[in-house]
Design a protein that fits this description.
The complex is a heterotrimer of chains A (about 350), B (about 325) and C (about 350).
Chain A lengths: L21 E10 L6 E11 L4 E5 L6 H9 L6 E10 L2 E2 L5 H10 L1 E4 L13 H10 L6 H14 L16 H13 L5 E5 L7 H18 L2 E6 L2 H7 L2 E6 L2 E7 H6 L4 H7 L43 H9 L5 E4 L2 E3 L9
Parallel strand pairs in A: 3-8, 3-9, 6-7, 7-8
Antiparallel strand pairs in A: 1-2, 1-4, 4-5, 9-10, 10-12, 11-12
Chain B lengths: L18 H4 L3 H4 L4 H8 L1 H18 L1 H4 L2 H5 L25 H37 L1 H15 L3 H12 L4 H28 L2 H9 L3 H9 L4 H24 L10 H10 L9 H28 L1 H20 L1
Helix pairs in contact in B: 4-7, 4-15, 7-8, 7-10, 7-13, 7-14, 7-15, 8-10, 9-10, 10-13, 11-12, 13-14, 13-15, 14-15
Chain C lengths: L5 E11 L10 E12 L4 E5 L6 H8 L7 E6 L2 E2 L6 H8 L2 E4 L13 H11 L8 H11 L5 H5 L8 H13 L5 E5 L7 H18 L2 E6 L2 H7 L2 E6 L2 E7 H6 L4 H9 L50 E4 L2 E3 L11 E2 L6
Parallel strand pairs in C: 3-8, 3-9, 6-7, 7-8
Antiparallel strand pairs in C: 1-2, 1-4, 4-5, 9-10, 10-12, 11-12, 11-13
The chains are: A alpha/beta (about 350), B mainly alpha (about 325), C alpha/beta (about 350).
The structure holds adenosine-5'-triphosphate, adenosine-5'-diphosphate, iron/sulfur cluster (SF4) and magnesium ion (MG) (2 copies).
Chain lengths: ~350, ~325, ~350
């Protein structure tokens, strides 16, 4: 049986400026249905342009992986897209057919999963896993696929002969590189990396990130980099989006975010990482814990933990506890969803 | 950044577990043990306990319900009667009253099951769990013994021993059943104990200064309650079946009433073929009800021994109650 | 220099790497010739990559493992081989450990009260009728309020940060002199970490506890600790006052660690590290020579033949390196016990 696989509608080699590779508009994702549903992502706007590294940071459970899975179109029940749209080069994916989506995955957008290191099949040689993956998307011969696998392993700094290795023969860092190589096999335009290095040691982590950065500069794909390690993102990403309880509360270019974070939550996050150099002072972090998504606070979701939300300022307090803030562009490229931001500085 | 208040302590989360249902009232605890209260609070556990208690009471008051002789003695005058007011469950081909068989049989069958189950479970738990925790040569030895016992088949051993001892007494049955079945349980429990022993909370109790005995019985074992209970129920069940099986083979103590004897006669008489369903159905039902009761208790234990399940149950229960009130 | 609350000398732990019964068995040298002391009111950070032997050191100190060789000196006596229940109990009433995983270190079927009550009862810290009050006091100390309510809960009803606080409260029940914390924040959410670190700082200051803080995060080590021990493949390769070591590291591995760590203060400019072969984890039957030699940019001939000793090349700062801390540069940092 021969399956004719048509290429995706010809994508312009050089994207028209302004049209992002991926754009989320008021995306909402729910887990479960009816009165027991949980809205894990609620009204997220996010765009990733060609060649850009966008970081997505936030506490555990705030919905980062859910956003990634939505972009990859791999949400499974009980998860479902409850609203908004996901545009790939301006085309909405929400009303695409299954076959089209299958081709879209990996070819256009590839993903390195949070538990990537354990996602390799333990009883299959690394090379064979490459071959299977590639042949599911392209009509290539086994040998051609193997050759490509070797080439990609070389690209991520692994000895080509390791195509014959089983996953358990590789260290955690090497396995992670194999996964990254697989994600790059079909030359996607966007690579989503969900906490790709959290399980790794600092040295290995940096080695891998360096390599990814080199590859990104060479091939020009965009990256959506998900982590809770803000200090890592500041170094690695061009632009950072901060997520809290299913919403994006601040986005800004990395340098700008580092120099002047505007959302109190972002400031709290920054306050959670002690510096390695420079003067030391007692940090305070963020009091309290993130809300249960099935019962989010009214108004600004951060208000119960917010140091700027005090009853002593009744007007502001009333707004903070009843009116949901939306992203406002305080400076070019710097968006903040906070009633008090801008007013206080 | 100076506006950030110095509150380095995270406040307890707002999600509170409604305390009503779970908090064990200390005063009442003295009269009813906490675990029993919990089990009675669980719907499945409650029904199971009620059923078992019913069975036990039936066995205890058997002399009030039927004479022992009508459960064993043949009386051809009364043979083959369908259920009636006089013979509630009818009579067999030999004229034995099936109702008497069932209530008197409850005594032997329940005692046999409970005793064999308890004995096998105690041996299995102590050897399996303790050896797994202590490890080393002790574990190796116990493992060897377990494996030897594991391959001994129950019924042939029982046949041999009863032939050798010229007795088919209850005690022998209990000992042999326990001796041949504990090894199976011990292996399951050992495997679970081995995974639990490497958990940090065990290391943490060692650092706290707990003795080995307390770690095994106070920290490890409570995590295995549902497994241990499952082991007990399984042996209980198998003991009743083995008893019935021996009777089936004609090797049981035919002069003593038990559910197994009743089934034996029903088979010998081909009652079903002759339309005398009662002599088969009622003893069978007794075994079925007992096993169902035990299974329900087991399910109850499963739920209450895991605080996570316990909490959600109680919460759901409370929610339902609150809803009921609101409507 | 104040007196040591706990000291280890030439500590060594090997794990059998195979299950052979005949012939020469091979061993993982998880901890090799490790010596250091913990002082009251001081936090000592033990840093290194995973597999370098940090947890093994902590577990040796907690007496969860018996050392293969070397001594654990507590109150002037070597307790490493004294296994009597009395001695162990006395040790446990002074030396306590906080585990990495707050989800695994509490017994899921026991209430919080049970976890705090047990040490109080085992060591007879307070009278029977004062136990409940003390439990509440402990919970308040670690910031869990209202204590009466928290005590009735089961571990799964608490968040990770709250669980770790319970774990800390449990270690405080015995009023310890030494606290061993094995990556106490690595499983916690970023926003909660700093709270736990601050709690440890507070305990150090208020109770004069000697802390061993095991971590792979240099920045949090700097935030918390006074001294640092850098571990590589089972050995301590550098030790000294933390600011001094981080500002001017002697050992090439310490330099590598430093350049690999992300630093928000450093801003957006990216640091690059040299990618080389070699592993930080403990090796099976390692040969003589420096264990870092495969990755070291400074390696010379002698490095692969002779195991370098820990030499105090700067005042108070010692390293295990033929080039940056040659034997001629200072004195051996650890006197031999024999
Ligand atoms: N299968 C599921 N069913 C129900 N709720 C889910 C499911 N998967 C995730 N959630 C909920 O959705 C929310 C967002 O989860 P998500 O995995 O996206 O978080 P995250 O930001 O990636 O967290 P982490 O940093 O821990 O990976 C959480 O509150 C989580 O409990
Ligand atoms: N119980 C054990 N049995 C065998 N090997 C072990 C055991 N514990 C640790 N090891 C080995 O010892 C080395 C050091 O481990 P560990 O102390 O856990 O490192 P770290 O805490 O620095 O990550 C590793 O190579 C590990 O595989
Ligand atoms: S001893 Fe040699 S190999 Fe080892 S760290 Fe020093 S220079 Fe490098
Ligand atoms: Mg995630
Ligand atoms: Mg460790």
């Amino acid at each position: 049986m021969t399956e004719v696989i048509e290429p995706m509608p010809a994508a312009p080699a050089i994207p028209a400026p302004g049209v992002p590779i991926i754009e989320l508009r008021q995306l909402a994702v729910e887990y479960g249905a009816g009165d027991r549903s949980v809205r894990a992502v609620d009204g997220v706007d996010l765009a990733v342009h060609a060649g850009e590294v966008v970081g997505l940071a936030g506490e555990s459970g705030c919905g980062k992986s859910t956003v990634a899975n939505a972009i990859m179109q791999i949400l499974r029940p009980p998860a479902r897209i409850a609203g908004g749209s996901i545009l790939f080069r301006g085309e909405d994916l929400v009303d695409k057919g299954r076959e089209e989506l299958r081709r879209y995955r990996w070819r256009n957008v590839a993903m390195v999963f949070q538990s990537a290191m354990s996602s390799l099949n333990p009883v299959m040689r690394v090379g064979d896993q490459f071959v299977d993956m590639m042949r599911a998307h392209e009509p290539v011969s086994r040998n051609a696929a193997l050759a490509r696998a070797e080439e990609l392993l070389g690209v991520v700094g692994i000895d080509r002969r390791r195509v014959r290795a089983f996953p358990h023969e590789l260290s955690g860092g090497m396995r992670q590189r194999v996964i990254i190589a697989m994600a790059l096999a079909l030359e996607p335009q966007l690579l989503i990396m969900d906490e790709p290095t959290t399980a790794l040691d600092v040295v290995v982590q940096r080695e891998i990130l360096q390599q990814v950065q080199d590859l990104q500069r060479e091939f020009g794909f965009a990256i959506l980099f998900i982590t809770h390690d803000l200090s890592l993102l500041i170094e690695f990403a061009d632009r950072i989006a901060i997520m809290y309880a299913g919403e994006i509360v601040e986005t800004a270019p990395s340098a700008r975010l580092q120099a002047s974070p505007r959302h109190p939550y972002t400031r709290g996050l920054m306050e959670s990482f002690p510096p390695l150099t420079g003067p030391l002072r007692r940090l305070v972090g963020i009091p309290g814990a993130p809300p249960d998504l099935s019962a989010v606070p009214p108004g600004c979701r951060f208000h119960p933990r917010c140091p700027l939300c005090v009853p002593e300022q009744p007007v502001m307090f009333a707004r903070q506890t009843t009116e949901r803030p939306v992203l406002r562009e305080l400076e070019p490229g710097h968006f903040v969803a906070c009633h008090a931001a801008g007013a206080s500085t | 950044m100076s506006q950030l208040l110095p509150t380095p302590i995270d406040l307890p989360q707002a999600v509170e577990l409604a305390p009503l249902g779970v908090r064990v009232d200390r005063r009442r605890r003295r009269f009813v043990p906490g675990w029993l209260r919990l089990l009675l609070g669980n719907p499945k556990g409650r029904i199971g306990i009620l059923m078992i208690v019913g069975m036990v009471v039936l066995g205890l008051i058997a002399p009030l319900l039927a004479s022992r002789s009508s459960a064993v003695d043949f009386s051809l005058l009364d043979a083959r009667q369908a259920p009636s007011w006089h013979h509630l469950f009818g009579t067999t081909d030999q004229g034995v009253d099936v109702f008497a068989q069932v209530v008197w049989g409850a005594r032997r069958s329940l005692l046999l099951g409970a005793a064999a189950g308890a004995l096998a479970t105690v041996i299995a738990t102590i050897l399996g769990v303790f050896a797994a925790y202590v490890g080393g040569i002790v574990d190796d030895l116990v493992n060897l013994v377990t494996n030897v016992f594991f391959v001994i088949p129950t019924i042939p051993l029982l046949i041999d021993i009863t032939a050798f001892l010229h007795t088919r007494g209850m005690l022998v049955m209990i000992l042999v059943i326990a001796a041949t079945l504990w090894a199976f349980e011990a292996r399951i429990l050992r495997a679970q104990a081995l995974t639990l022993k490497n958990r940090d909370f065990i290391a943490a109790s060692r650092v706290a200064g707990e003795s080995t005995r307390r770690i095994v019985f106070g920290e490890l074992m409570p995590n295995m309650v549902s497994r241990i209970a499952a082991a007990f129920v399984l042996v209980f069940y198998v003991a009743i079946l083995v008893d019935a099986g021996l009777e089936f083979l004609g090797l049981g103590a035919m002069d003593k009433p038990s559910w197994g004897v009743a089934l034996y006669w029903a088979t010998v008489n081909s009652s079903m073929l002759q339309g005398e369903w009662w002599s088969f159905v009622f003893p069978g039902l007794a075994i079925g009800v007992t096993v169902l009761a035990l299974t329900l208790i087991l399910a109850g234990i499963d739920e209450v021994s895991n605080p996570r399940l316990r909490a959600t149950r109680v919460r759901r229960h409370l929610a339902r109650r609150a809803l009921g009130r609101a409507v | 220099m104040s007196e040591a609350a706990l000291e280890v000398r030439h500590l060594e732990k090997r794990f059998a790497a195979d299950a052979r019964f005949v012939g020469r068995r091979s061993y993982v040298h998880a901890v090799d010739d490790v010596s250091f002391m913990l002082r009251p009111g001081t936090i000592t950070a033990l840093v290194g990559e995973s597999g370098s032997g940090k947890s093994t050191v902590a577990r040796l100190l907690a007496r969860l493992y018996a050392p293969t060789a070397g001594s654990v000196i507590y109150r002037g006596k070597d307790v490493a081989r004294d296994k009597s229940r009395r001695s162990v109990l006395r040790y446990r009433s002074q030396v306590q450990m906080i585990f990495q995983d707050p989800f695994g270190s509490l017994n899921p079927v026991k209430t919080i009260r049970h976890h705090l009550e047990r040490p109080l009862r085992i060591h007879g810290i307070v009278e029977r009728d004062e136990v409940e009050d003390r439990v509440h006091e402990l919970l308040r100390t670690v910031g869990l309020v209202p204590p009466g309510h928290v005590a009735d809960k089961y571990p799964h009803e608490l968040s990770g940060g709250q669980r770790q606080r319970v774990a800390i409260a449990r270690t405080l029940a015995v009023e310890p002199v030494v606290l061993l914390a094995d990556e106490p924040t690595s499983m916690l959410d970023v926003s909660i970490r700093i709270g736990i670190l601050n709690l440890m700082l507070k305990l150090k200051e208020e109770r004069d506890i000697a802390f061993l803080y095991v971590t792979h995060d240099l920045a949090s080590a700097r935030y918390l600790a006074d001294d640092i021990l850098v571990m590589y493949a089972g050995q301590i390769v550098e030790q000294g006052p933390i600011e001094q070591v981080l500002a001017d590291p002697l050992h090439p591995y310490t330099k590598l660690l430093l350049s690999a760590a992300a630093d928000p203060e450093a801003g957006v400019e990216t640091k690059r590290i040299e990618v080389r072969k070699g592993l930080a984890s403990a090796a099976v039957d390692p040969p003589d020579g420096c264990r870092f030699v495969g990755r070291c940019p400074l390696a010379i001939d002698v490095c692969s033949r002779v195991t370098p000793a820990l030499v105090e090349a700067h005042p108070g700062q010692a390293a295990r390196c033929h080039v940056t801390a040659p034997a001629s540069a200072g004195i051996a940092a650890v006197p031999s016990t024999s």
